[in-house]
Every structure is written in structure tokens, then in C-alpha cells.
Amino acid sequence: MSERVNLKVSINEQATLDTSKKKRMNLNVILFIGTLIIFFLLNFFNTNDSLISAKENRTLAEMPVLNWNDLISGKYIQDFELYYSDSFPFREFFITCGSVLLEMKGFSGEDEVTIVESKGNYVVVGNKAMSLYYYTPEAAEQYSRALNTFRGKIGNEVEIYSLIVPTAIEYFLDEKYSDMAPPQSESIQFVNDLLDESIHSIPAYKMLEENKNEYTYFRTDHHWTALGAYYAYTSFMEQIGESAIPLGQYSEKKAGQFLGTTYNATLNKNLAADPDTIFIYEPFMEYTFKALKNGKLTQGEVIQENKEGYGKFLGGDFPSAHIETEQEGDRILIIKDSYANSFIPFLIPHYEQIHFIDLRHYSGDVYEYITKHEIDEVMFLNSSSVTSHTGYTRILEEKLNLN
């Protein structure tokens, strides 16, 4: 009799457990489906069509245009993922929340190091945020191959220079964290070794290394400062056998403080409490600067104090622009990314004309441009990201017909 009672109790307990488990499973299903429905409705009624993120200080990805080739190659899916990650509802709110959580998740030691997993990924050490660096040998090979192919197409009458700018993490990450980023010195040298012997590599790396204790890179922005660009300029002058203008000959001026791109990506409170300072070096020679904006050439200054942050240099990025000076001499074309913006003003005393093209935005024929403006020299000035990803090099290949 006793055994029957125990068995009955056991069966009842099991039934109660099964019912409880079933309820939890149903609740989980309801929560999961409910979350999907909520996000579906939020996306359906999402009116966030902003093209610029003020927090991150960058252009947001636009909805890709569907075509057969991109769909087959997988590019459409990649572009759509970028578009969605840039446009989902309450994105700015979630970025702020994510920043707070990541700071809580980050480990703090004597250096207060935090890893921030955002686009590009960043490491924050004290009051300095740096983009992590990744090395891809295939990307480095593709970039050097593109420059060599350009050399073959343009002929030997035009001198070609290559300046690859190391990013801040190369100089400012303590050695004990060196496994976070491979040495850019080796990847830059790898590219240089593959270049045609007629392409001149500018050894800016060494000069920046020798002066890394100075304010050569911003702490809250991924660019170098005007001082860092000046040291690269001195390397270039040494390469072409000219004397660099002494820095003391320029009028140095503080042009305000700002929080730049790496702050906007990390929203770290240590950076917010200690903004960067912009120092500018005013050109002391007469020049005329015209940039192509919205299809029209617009005259301006190479230092634009009304702009914010790094935008003070040239006023930002344009498809093309040029500077005419009172010098008589050579004409140079710089095919560039934004690192060139603080570098270019230092060339004014040395060239009759300085042209620059940003192939991310320029749609014209570069070879016709070179012929039309009687260009003597071409410089490729880009950051070391060309050894991390193939995206920029693919733009070079497409816009310069290098395939």
C-alpha cells in the first residue's frame, strides 16, 4: 500500500514538473516571437533615413541597388548588411548603451585598457583610443600590384611616389599588448619590397618613429596631427633632394579642441574628459586653392578654421582639388585618402601646382587629368589600411583601369 502511495506521489510530481517545463518553454517561444514581431514592426515603420552619424562623424551606408552581378557575387548581401547595421531603429540609443556596457565589460588594469568592438574595432588606453590594425598579405600584394600596373600604364616620364602612413597604434600601444596588432613596419616594408624599382617609397615611418613622443597623432581621432604630417613631409623632401621648410618658419596656432572619430566610435568617458587640440601651421606664401564641390570649382583656403576637427585641413575630402602657387616648377598629383589633407599644405613652397584626387569620390578619367594638367609627379598617399583590406585597392583598380 505504501509503495502505491509513493508511486502515485512520484507520478504527480513528474506531471507537475512537465507542466512547469512546458509553461517555461511556451513563455520562451512567446518572448522570442514577440521580440521578432516588435523588431519587425520597428523596422517596418522605421523612418531613420539619416545619411550621416553625428556621434560617429561618418557617412552611413545607403540602401544598395539590387543588380544581378552584385547578387551573384555576394556584394549585395554584404552591402545590405552594412546598410541595415547603419539604419536599424534607435541606433544612436543602442550605440550609447553599448558603449556603457562595453566599458563595464572592459578590463581595467593599471593602464585602463578597454577593447571596443565597433566598426573597425578599437582599443582605448587611458585617454587615447586607437583603431586596431590587421594585416592581410593578400591586400598588401594587391596594393603593390596596383601601383606597379599604374606605372606600366603611365610610362616612365612621370615620377611616382608611394607614402603609406602608419596608424597611431603602431607607436602608442605598449609592447605588452603587441599581440593586438601586428607591426606595421613589416607590412609597409612588404609593400615597398614588391614595388617596381622606379616607384619611390617615402620612409615616413622612420621619421614618425623618431618623433613619436611628440603630438604626432590625435588621441580621439584616427588621423595624424599636422605635426605628424610635417615629419612625413620632411621625409619626402629628403627623398627628392630638397630642403624642408623649418617648422619654426610657420606660424603655429591653436585652433580649438575637438573629439574625433575614435571617440565617436567608443564614446569613452576618459576621452570625453580630455579632448584633442588642433594645431595648424598657416602657409606663408601666396596660393589659390580650388576644390570641386557639387560639380563646381569653389575657391577657399587650405586651412579652414570654421570647420570642425580634422576638417580644418583643406575643408575635408573632395573628388578633386588643386592649388596654384607663385612658384615655377613641377606639378604633382596626389591620389589620396584623408591622411593627405594635413600633409598637402606643406607642399605649397615646392610646387607650381598641387593637384589631388580622392578616388573614393572622383569619377573622371585620371589619365586624361594627368595629360590635361601636365603632371610631372604622382604620389599615392594612403594609410596602412591598404595592407589590411582590399576595398580601397579595388577602387584604385576600377578607377585607374588596372585590371
Could you characterize the architecture of this molecule?
The protein is an alpha/beta fold and 403 residues long. Helices cover 39% and strands 19% of the residues. It has 13 helices and 15 strands. The chain has helices at residues 2-44, 68-73, 75-87, 91-105, 137-154, 169-172, 184-194, 204-210, 226-240, 261-266, 269-272, 366-372, 391-399; strands at residues 52-53, 58-59, 113-116, 122-125, 128-131, 159-165, 199-201, 251-258, 276-282, 287-293, 296-300, 320-325, 331-336, 353-357, 377-383. It has an eight-stranded mixed beta sheet with strand order 7-6-15-13-14-12-10-11. A hairpin with a 2-residue loop joins strand 4 (122-125) and strand 5. It starts with a helix and ends with a helix. Residues 106-110 have low confidence and may be disordered.
Describe the structure in brief.
This protein has helices at residues 2-44, 68-73, 75-87, 91-105, 137-154, 169-172, 184-194, 204-210, 226-240, 261-266, 269-272, 366-372, 391-399; strands at residues 52-53, 58-59, 113-116, 122-125, 128-131, 159-165, 199-201, 251-258, 276-282, 287-293, 296-300, 320-325, 331-336, 353-357, 377-383. It has 403 residues and is of the alpha/beta class. It has an eight-stranded mixed beta sheet with strand order 7-6-15-13-14-12-10-11. A three-stranded antiparallel beta sheet has the order 3-4-5.
